[in-house]
Protein backbone atom coordinates (compact mmCIF):
# COMPACT_ATOMS: atom_id res chain seq x y z
CA UNK A 1 0.00 0.00 0.00
CA UNK A 2 1.82 3.09 -1.27
CA UNK A 3 1.40 6.61 -0.01
CA UNK A 4 -0.33 5.64 3.21
CA UNK A 5 -0.11 7.97 6.22
CA UNK A 6 2.77 7.57 8.65
CA UNK A 7 0.40 6.60 11.48
CA UNK A 8 -0.89 3.63 9.46
CA UNK A 9 2.62 2.59 8.47
CA UNK A 10 3.77 2.72 12.10
CA UNK A 11 0.73 0.76 13.32
CA UNK A 12 1.26 -1.95 10.71
CA UNK A 13 4.99 -2.08 11.36
CA UNK A 14 5.78 -1.32 7.72
CA UNK A 15 4.21 -4.57 6.50
CA UNK A 16 2.56 -4.54 3.07
CA UNK A 17 0.52 -7.69 3.67
CA UNK A 18 -1.21 -9.10 6.70
CA UNK A 19 0.66 -11.89 8.52
CA UNK A 20 -1.22 -15.08 9.20
CA UNK A 21 -0.49 -15.05 12.94
CA UNK A 22 -0.03 -12.21 15.44
CA UNK A 23 3.44 -11.71 16.99
CA UNK A 24 4.30 -13.33 20.35
CA UNK A 25 2.42 -12.03 23.37
CA UNK A 26 3.97 -8.88 24.87
CA UNK A 27 5.72 -9.19 28.24
CA UNK A 28 3.63 -8.31 31.29
CA UNK A 29 4.24 -5.27 33.45
CA UNK A 30 6.13 -2.07 32.81
CA UNK A 31 9.39 -1.96 30.87
CA UNK A 32 11.75 0.70 29.55
CA UNK A 33 10.55 2.70 26.60
CA UNK A 34 12.49 3.24 23.38
CA UNK A 35 13.50 6.71 24.56
CA UNK A 36 14.86 5.37 27.85
CA UNK A 37 16.82 2.67 26.04
CA UNK A 38 18.36 5.20 23.64
CA UNK A 39 19.34 7.71 26.32
CA UNK A 40 20.54 4.96 28.64
CA UNK A 41 22.69 3.43 25.91
CA UNK A 42 24.30 6.77 25.03
CA UNK A 43 24.99 7.58 28.70
CA UNK A 44 26.41 4.12 29.44
CA UNK A 45 28.70 4.21 26.40
CA UNK A 46 29.98 7.69 27.34
CA UNK A 47 30.65 6.63 30.95
CA UNK A 48 32.47 3.50 29.80
CA UNK A 49 34.57 5.50 27.36
CA UNK A 50 35.49 8.01 30.11
CA UNK A 51 36.61 5.22 32.43
CA UNK A 52 38.61 3.43 29.75
CA UNK A 53 40.33 6.45 28.21
CA UNK A 54 40.54 8.60 31.32
CA UNK A 55 39.18 11.66 29.49
CA UNK A 56 36.97 13.62 31.86
CA UNK A 57 35.30 15.60 29.10
CA UNK A 58 33.46 12.41 28.09
CA UNK A 59 31.49 12.65 31.33
CA UNK A 60 29.83 15.76 29.88
CA UNK A 61 28.61 13.66 26.95
CA UNK A 62 27.03 11.26 29.45
CA UNK A 63 25.46 14.02 31.54
CA UNK A 64 23.02 15.23 28.85
CA UNK A 65 21.18 11.92 28.22
CA UNK A 66 21.17 11.10 31.92
CA UNK A 67 19.64 14.50 32.66
CA UNK A 68 16.96 13.88 30.03
CA UNK A 69 16.23 10.51 31.66
CA UNK A 70 15.80 12.21 35.01
CA UNK A 71 13.40 14.74 33.50
CA UNK A 72 11.39 11.90 31.94
CA UNK A 73 10.56 10.28 35.26
CA UNK A 74 6.76 10.15 35.78
CA UNK A 75 5.15 12.76 37.97
CA UNK A 76 2.27 10.55 39.07
CA UNK A 77 1.63 6.93 39.92
CA UNK A 78 1.81 4.59 36.97
CA UNK A 79 -1.42 2.72 36.15
CA UNK A 80 -1.56 -0.78 37.60
CA UNK A 81 -4.88 -1.86 36.07
CA UNK A 82 -5.39 -1.41 32.34
CA UNK A 83 -8.56 -2.49 30.53
CA UNK A 84 -9.86 -1.74 27.06
CA UNK A 85 -13.46 -1.79 25.86
CA UNK A 86 -13.84 -2.83 22.21
CA UNK A 87 -16.68 -1.74 19.95
CA UNK A 88 -16.69 -3.03 16.36
CA UNK A 89 -19.45 -1.88 14.01
CA UNK A 90 -20.85 -3.49 12.01
CA UNK A 91 -20.22 -7.15 12.73
CA UNK A 92 -21.98 -8.03 9.45
CA UNK A 93 -21.31 -6.25 6.19
CA UNK A 94 -20.85 -6.76 2.45
CA UNK A 95 -17.62 -6.78 0.47
CA UNK A 96 -16.17 -3.31 0.02
CA UNK A 97 -17.96 -1.82 3.03
CA UNK A 98 -16.14 -0.20 5.93
CA UNK A 99 -15.84 -1.47 9.50
CA UNK A 100 -15.05 0.81 12.44
CA UNK A 101 -13.34 -0.43 15.61
CA UNK A 102 -13.13 1.80 18.69
CA UNK A 103 -10.89 0.97 21.66
CA UNK A 104 -11.56 2.88 24.88
CA UNK A 105 -8.83 2.61 27.54
CA UNK A 106 -9.61 2.62 31.28
CA UNK A 107 -6.87 2.83 33.95
CA UNK A 108 -6.41 3.72 37.60
CA UNK A 109 -3.31 5.91 37.51
CA UNK A 110 -1.79 8.65 35.38
CA UNK A 111 -1.07 7.56 31.79
CA UNK A 112 0.63 9.33 28.91
CA UNK A 113 0.34 8.80 25.18
CA UNK A 114 -1.00 5.72 23.39
CA UNK A 115 0.81 3.98 20.53
CA UNK A 116 -1.13 1.14 18.83
CA UNK A 117 0.48 -1.66 16.88
CA UNK A 118 -1.83 -3.69 14.60
CA UNK A 119 -1.81 -7.20 13.18
CA UNK A 120 -4.43 -7.25 10.41
CA UNK A 121 -6.66 -10.23 9.87
CA UNK A 122 -6.98 -11.81 6.40
CA UNK A 123 -9.41 -10.08 4.08
CA UNK A 124 -9.03 -6.72 5.88
CA UNK A 125 -7.38 -3.45 4.87
CA UNK A 126 -6.63 -0.62 7.30
CA UNK A 127 -7.80 2.73 5.91
CA UNK A 128 -7.61 5.17 8.81
CA UNK A 129 -6.23 5.40 12.34
CA UNK A 130 -6.79 8.11 14.92
CA UNK A 131 -5.52 8.23 18.50
CA UNK A 132 -6.80 10.54 21.25
CA UNK A 133 -6.06 10.71 24.97
CA UNK A 134 -7.79 7.45 25.90
CA UNK A 135 -9.32 6.21 22.65
CA UNK A 136 -8.11 4.56 19.45
CA UNK A 137 -10.33 4.52 16.37
CA UNK A 138 -9.54 2.29 13.39
CA UNK A 139 -11.35 2.07 10.05
CA UNK A 140 -11.07 -1.07 7.90
CA UNK A 141 -12.38 -2.15 4.52
CA UNK A 142 -13.64 -5.73 4.09
CA UNK A 143 -12.02 -6.89 0.86
CA UNK A 144 -13.28 -10.49 0.52
CA UNK A 145 -16.29 -12.41 1.72
CA UNK A 146 -15.88 -14.84 4.57
CA UNK A 147 -15.81 -14.99 8.33
CA UNK A 148 -12.65 -13.10 9.18
CA UNK A 149 -10.72 -12.06 12.27
CA UNK A 150 -10.53 -8.27 12.15
CA UNK A 151 -7.12 -8.16 13.80
CA UNK A 152 -5.16 -7.83 17.01
CA UNK A 153 -4.08 -4.51 18.54
CA UNK A 154 -1.03 -4.25 20.81
CA UNK A 155 -1.71 -0.99 22.65
CA UNK A 156 1.45 0.55 24.11
CA UNK A 157 0.57 2.76 27.13
CA UNK A 158 3.36 5.13 28.22
CA UNK A 159 3.68 6.82 31.58
CA UNK A 160 3.41 10.57 31.83
CA UNK A 161 7.12 11.12 31.21
CA UNK A 162 7.47 8.54 28.44
CA UNK A 163 10.21 6.67 30.32
CA UNK A 164 8.34 3.34 30.57
CA UNK A 165 5.60 1.57 28.68
CA UNK A 166 3.19 -1.26 29.20
CA UNK A 167 1.50 -3.22 26.39
CA UNK A 168 -2.13 -4.32 26.42
CA UNK A 169 -3.19 -6.84 23.75
CA UNK A 170 -6.74 -6.44 22.46
CA UNK A 171 -8.50 -8.89 20.12
CA UNK A 172 -11.01 -7.20 17.81
CA UNK A 173 -13.00 -10.41 17.25
CA UNK A 174 -14.63 -11.69 14.05
CA UNK A 175 -16.87 -10.17 11.41
CA UNK A 176 -19.09 -11.83 8.81
CA UNK A 177 -18.47 -10.39 5.35
CA UNK A 178 -21.20 -11.22 2.83
CA UNK A 179 -20.51 -11.46 -0.91
CA UNK A 180 -21.89 -8.82 -3.26
CA UNK A 181 -24.55 -10.78 -5.21
CA UNK A 182 -24.26 -10.94 -8.98
CA UNK A 183 -27.05 -9.04 -10.71
CA UNK A 184 -29.76 -11.62 -11.47
CA UNK A 185 -33.46 -11.34 -12.22
CA UNK A 186 -34.39 -14.52 -14.12
CA UNK A 187 -35.80 -17.51 -12.25
CA UNK A 188 -36.15 -20.56 -14.53
CA UNK A 189 -38.48 -23.27 -13.22
CA UNK A 190 -38.65 -27.08 -13.59
CA UNK A 191 -41.39 -29.11 -15.32
CA UNK A 192 -43.11 -30.09 -12.09
CA UNK A 193 -43.90 -27.63 -9.35
CA UNK A 194 -45.04 -28.44 -5.81
CA UNK A 195 -48.65 -27.83 -4.85
CA UNK A 196 -47.98 -24.52 -3.18
CA UNK A 197 -49.16 -21.06 -4.14
CA UNK A 198 -46.57 -18.86 -5.77
CA UNK A 199 -45.78 -16.66 -8.75
CA UNK A 200 -44.78 -19.23 -11.41
CA UNK A 201 -47.29 -20.31 -14.02
CA UNK A 202 -47.70 -24.10 -14.03
CA UNK A 203 -49.12 -26.47 -16.60
CA UNK A 204 -52.09 -27.38 -14.36
CA UNK A 205 -55.41 -25.57 -14.27
CA UNK A 206 -55.96 -23.31 -11.32
CA UNK A 207 -56.83 -19.89 -9.99
CA UNK A 208 -54.08 -17.89 -11.66
CA UNK A 209 -54.27 -14.86 -13.95
CA UNK A 210 -52.83 -16.30 -17.19
CA UNK A 211 -55.49 -17.55 -19.63
CA UNK A 212 -54.63 -20.91 -21.18
CA UNK A 213 -57.92 -21.67 -22.97
CA UNK A 214 -61.66 -22.08 -22.54
CA UNK A 215 -63.83 -24.90 -21.23
CA UNK A 216 -67.55 -25.65 -20.85
CA UNK A 217 -69.31 -24.43 -17.75
CA UNK A 218 -69.41 -26.92 -14.88
CA UNK A 219 -71.62 -26.52 -11.83
CA UNK A 220 -69.62 -24.60 -9.24
CA UNK A 221 -67.55 -22.55 -11.72
CA UNK A 222 -67.47 -18.80 -11.33
CA UNK A 223 -69.85 -17.25 -13.82
CA UNK A 224 -67.97 -13.96 -13.91
CA UNK A 225 -65.30 -15.75 -15.95
CA UNK A 226 -67.63 -16.36 -18.87
CA UNK A 227 -66.00 -16.08 -22.29
CA UNK A 228 -68.80 -14.39 -24.21
CA UNK A 229 -67.52 -14.76 -27.81
CA UNK A 230 -67.15 -18.55 -27.41
CA UNK A 231 -70.47 -18.79 -25.56
CA UNK A 232 -72.29 -16.99 -28.40
CA UNK A 233 -70.58 -19.09 -31.04
CA UNK A 234 -71.25 -22.49 -29.41
CA UNK A 235 -74.61 -21.74 -27.89
CA UNK A 236 -73.60 -22.84 -24.36
CA UNK A 237 -71.69 -21.28 -21.50
CA UNK A 238 -67.93 -21.26 -22.03
CA UNK A 239 -65.51 -20.06 -19.33
CA UNK A 240 -61.94 -18.85 -19.30
CA UNK A 241 -59.43 -21.49 -18.27
CA UNK A 242 -56.52 -20.23 -16.17
CA UNK A 243 -53.15 -21.75 -15.31
CA UNK A 244 -52.38 -22.41 -11.67
CA UNK A 245 -49.64 -20.36 -10.04
CA UNK A 246 -47.17 -22.27 -7.96
CA UNK A 247 -43.97 -21.66 -6.03
CA UNK A 248 -40.83 -23.66 -6.75
CA UNK A 249 -38.32 -25.40 -4.52
CA UNK A 250 -34.73 -24.60 -5.48
CA UNK A 251 -31.41 -25.76 -4.05
CA UNK A 252 -28.05 -24.12 -4.76
CA UNK A 253 -25.18 -26.61 -4.51
CA UNK A 254 -21.71 -25.07 -4.18
CA UNK A 255 -18.57 -26.90 -5.27
CA UNK A 256 -15.93 -25.78 -2.75
CA UNK A 257 -13.58 -28.69 -3.38
CA UNK A 258 -10.94 -26.29 -4.68
CA UNK A 259 -10.24 -22.58 -5.02
CA UNK A 260 -8.55 -21.77 -8.34
CA UNK A 261 -7.26 -18.36 -9.41
CA UNK A 262 -7.51 -17.25 -13.02
CA UNK A 263 -3.92 -16.53 -14.15
CA UNK A 264 -5.09 -13.73 -16.45
CA UNK A 265 -7.44 -11.80 -14.14
CA UNK A 266 -6.46 -13.07 -10.68
CA UNK A 267 -10.10 -13.75 -9.81
CA UNK A 268 -10.89 -16.57 -7.40
CA UNK A 269 -13.26 -19.32 -8.53
CA UNK A 270 -14.58 -19.61 -4.98
CA UNK A 271 -15.32 -15.88 -4.81
CA UNK A 272 -17.13 -15.89 -8.15
CA UNK A 273 -19.02 -19.08 -7.23
CA UNK A 274 -20.40 -17.56 -4.06
CA UNK A 275 -21.24 -14.20 -5.65
CA UNK A 276 -23.15 -15.82 -8.51
CA UNK A 277 -24.96 -18.16 -6.13
CA UNK A 278 -25.88 -15.25 -3.85
CA UNK A 279 -27.40 -13.40 -6.81
CA UNK A 280 -29.47 -16.44 -7.77
CA UNK A 281 -30.65 -16.95 -4.18
CA UNK A 282 -31.78 -13.34 -3.94
CA UNK A 283 -33.65 -13.56 -7.27
CA UNK A 284 -35.66 -16.64 -6.21
CA UNK A 285 -36.43 -15.16 -2.80
CA UNK A 286 -37.86 -12.07 -4.53
CA UNK A 287 -40.41 -14.32 -6.27
CA UNK A 288 -41.36 -15.85 -2.89
CA UNK A 289 -39.89 -19.25 -3.76
CA UNK A 290 -38.24 -21.55 -1.29
CA UNK A 291 -34.50 -21.97 -1.73
CA UNK A 292 -31.84 -23.88 0.17
CA UNK A 293 -28.09 -24.37 -0.06
CA UNK A 294 -25.59 -27.23 0.09
CA UNK A 295 -21.80 -26.84 0.03
CA UNK A 296 -19.63 -29.89 -0.66
CA UNK A 297 -15.91 -30.05 0.01
CA UNK A 298 -14.26 -30.52 3.38
CA UNK A 299 -17.33 -30.47 5.62
CA UNK A 300 -20.71 -30.84 3.90
CA UNK A 301 -22.91 -27.93 4.99
CA UNK A 302 -26.56 -27.56 4.10
CA UNK A 303 -29.67 -25.59 4.92
CA UNK A 304 -33.20 -26.72 4.09
CA UNK A 305 -35.16 -24.60 1.58
CA UNK A 306 -36.95 -21.64 3.09
CA UNK A 307 -38.41 -18.33 1.96
CA UNK A 308 -38.42 -14.70 2.96
CA UNK A 309 -35.89 -11.93 2.39
CA UNK A 310 -34.28 -12.53 5.80
CA UNK A 311 -33.57 -16.11 4.71
CA UNK A 312 -30.89 -14.77 2.36
CA UNK A 313 -28.68 -13.92 5.35
CA UNK A 314 -29.27 -17.34 6.93
CA UNK A 315 -28.12 -19.00 3.72
CA UNK A 316 -24.99 -16.86 3.46
CA UNK A 317 -24.14 -17.35 7.14
CA UNK A 318 -24.38 -21.13 6.71
CA UNK A 319 -21.54 -21.24 4.17
CA UNK A 320 -19.23 -18.44 5.31
CA UNK A 321 -16.90 -20.96 6.94
CA UNK A 322 -16.15 -22.82 3.69
CA UNK A 323 -12.80 -21.02 3.40
CA UNK A 324 -11.72 -22.65 6.65
CA UNK A 325 -12.68 -26.04 5.19
CA UNK A 326 -10.30 -25.70 2.25
CA UNK A 327 -7.47 -27.12 4.35
CA UNK A 328 -9.48 -30.30 4.95
CA UNK A 329 -9.34 -32.93 2.24
CA UNK A 330 -10.99 -36.33 2.12
CA UNK A 331 -10.69 -39.09 -0.46
CA UNK A 332 -14.48 -39.43 -0.81
CA UNK A 333 -17.52 -37.24 -0.29
CA UNK A 334 -20.34 -37.85 2.15
CA UNK A 335 -23.82 -38.71 0.95
CA UNK A 336 -26.05 -35.70 0.58
CA UNK A 337 -28.65 -35.64 3.37
CA UNK A 338 -32.17 -36.36 2.01
CA UNK A 339 -33.78 -33.24 3.59
CA UNK A 340 -31.30 -31.06 1.71
CA UNK A 341 -32.79 -32.06 -1.66
CA UNK A 342 -36.61 -32.02 -1.54
CA UNK A 343 -38.45 -34.08 -4.14
CA UNK A 344 -38.67 -32.34 -7.56
CA UNK A 345 -36.56 -29.38 -6.29
CA UNK A 346 -34.57 -27.63 -9.00
CA UNK A 347 -30.84 -27.97 -8.22
CA UNK A 348 -28.23 -25.48 -9.43
CA UNK A 349 -24.64 -26.72 -9.14
CA UNK A 350 -22.02 -23.95 -9.23
CA UNK A 351 -18.66 -25.51 -10.04
CA UNK A 352 -15.38 -24.64 -11.82
CA UNK A 353 -15.28 -28.25 -13.14
CA UNK A 354 -11.79 -28.75 -11.75
CA UNK A 355 -12.20 -31.66 -9.33
CA UNK A 356 -13.76 -34.78 -10.86
CA UNK A 357 -15.27 -35.70 -7.49
CA UNK A 358 -18.06 -33.26 -8.29
CA UNK A 359 -19.34 -35.92 -10.72
CA UNK A 360 -20.06 -38.14 -7.71
CA UNK A 361 -22.26 -35.39 -6.30
CA UNK A 362 -24.08 -34.96 -9.62
CA UNK A 363 -24.74 -38.71 -9.73
CA UNK A 364 -26.35 -38.47 -6.29
CA UNK A 365 -28.61 -35.65 -7.47
CA UNK A 366 -29.60 -37.49 -10.66
CA UNK A 367 -30.38 -40.65 -8.71
CA UNK A 368 -33.12 -38.69 -6.92
CA UNK A 369 -34.57 -37.46 -10.26
CA UNK A 370 -34.15 -33.80 -9.37
CA UNK A 371 -34.09 -31.29 -12.26
CA UNK A 372 -30.48 -30.24 -12.56
CA UNK A 373 -28.56 -27.27 -13.96
CA UNK A 374 -24.76 -27.05 -13.84
CA UNK A 375 -23.36 -23.51 -13.84
CA UNK A 376 -19.69 -23.57 -14.82
CA UNK A 377 -17.45 -20.86 -13.37
CA UNK A 378 -14.59 -20.51 -15.91
CA UNK A 379 -11.13 -20.29 -14.38
CA UNK A 380 -8.92 -19.57 -17.39
CA UNK A 381 -6.10 -21.70 -18.73
CA UNK A 382 -2.91 -22.25 -16.72
CA UNK A 383 0.05 -20.16 -17.82
CA UNK A 384 2.54 -21.87 -20.12
CA UNK A 385 6.03 -20.62 -20.90
CA UNK A 386 6.60 -20.17 -24.67
CA UNK A 387 8.53 -23.08 -26.11
CA UNK A 388 7.87 -25.40 -23.15
CA UNK A 389 6.63 -28.51 -24.99
CA UNK A 390 5.93 -30.49 -21.82
CA UNK A 391 3.76 -27.70 -20.40
CA UNK A 392 1.95 -27.30 -23.72
CA UNK A 393 1.09 -31.01 -23.78
CA UNK A 394 -0.08 -30.81 -20.16
CA UNK A 395 -2.31 -27.86 -21.07
CA UNK A 396 -3.86 -29.85 -23.94
CA UNK A 397 -4.57 -32.74 -21.60
CA UNK A 398 -6.08 -30.33 -19.06
CA UNK A 399 -8.39 -28.86 -21.69
CA UNK A 400 -9.33 -32.31 -22.98
CA UNK A 401 -10.20 -33.45 -19.46
CA UNK A 402 -12.55 -30.50 -18.96
CA UNK A 403 -14.12 -31.03 -22.39
CA UNK A 404 -14.72 -34.67 -21.45
CA UNK A 405 -16.49 -33.60 -18.25
CA UNK A 406 -18.71 -31.19 -20.21
CA UNK A 407 -19.52 -33.87 -22.78
CA UNK A 408 -20.43 -36.37 -20.05
CA UNK A 409 -22.85 -33.86 -18.52
CA UNK A 410 -24.62 -33.01 -21.77
CA UNK A 411 -24.83 -36.69 -22.77
CA UNK A 412 -26.72 -37.38 -19.55
CA UNK A 413 -29.27 -34.68 -20.35
CA UNK A 414 -27.97 -32.19 -17.76
CA UNK A 415 -28.28 -28.52 -18.64
CA UNK A 416 -24.82 -26.92 -18.69
CA UNK A 417 -24.32 -23.16 -18.81
CA UNK A 418 -21.24 -20.96 -18.30
CA UNK A 419 -21.15 -17.78 -16.22
CA UNK A 420 -18.45 -15.26 -17.03
CA UNK A 421 -17.21 -13.23 -14.02
CA UNK A 422 -18.24 -9.62 -14.30
CA UNK A 423 -21.34 -10.40 -16.39
CA UNK A 424 -24.91 -10.62 -15.19
CA UNK A 425 -26.04 -14.17 -14.50
CA UNK A 426 -29.15 -13.53 -16.62
CA UNK A 427 -27.05 -13.93 -19.78
CA UNK A 428 -26.28 -17.51 -18.78
CA UNK A 429 -29.80 -18.30 -17.52
CA UNK A 430 -31.67 -16.88 -20.54
CA UNK A 431 -31.48 -20.10 -22.66
CA UNK A 432 -33.19 -22.01 -19.82
CA UNK A 433 -36.35 -19.90 -20.27
CA UNK A 434 -37.09 -21.48 -23.65
CA UNK A 435 -38.34 -24.67 -22.03
CA UNK A 436 -39.01 -26.20 -18.62
CA UNK A 437 -36.03 -27.90 -17.00
CA UNK A 438 -36.05 -31.70 -16.83
CA UNK A 439 -34.02 -34.05 -14.71
CA UNK A 440 -30.93 -35.67 -16.17
CA UNK A 441 -31.02 -39.13 -17.69
CA UNK A 442 -29.48 -41.90 -15.54
Automatic annotation (TrEMBL):
<dbReference type="Pfam" id="PF01882">
    <property type="entry name" value="DUF58"/>
</dbReference>
<keyword id="KW-0812">Transmembrane</keyword>
<feature type="region of interest" description="Disordered">
    <location>
        <begin position="1"/>
        <end position="31"/>
    </location>
</feature>
<protein>
    <recommendedName>
        <fullName>DUF58 domain-containing protein</fullName>
    </recommendedName>
</protein>
<feature type="domain" description="DUF58">
    <location>
        <begin position="216"/>
        <end position="371"/>
    </location>
</feature>
<keyword id="KW-0472">Membrane</keyword>
<feature type="compositionally biased region" description="Pro residues">
    <location>
        <begin position="20"/>
        <end position="29"/>
    </location>
</feature>
<feature type="transmembrane region" description="Helical">
    <location>
        <begin position="44"/>
        <end position="73"/>
    </location>
</feature>
<dbReference type="InterPro" id="IPR002881">
    <property type="entry name" value="DUF58"/>
</dbReference>
<keyword id="KW-1133">Transmembrane helix</keyword>
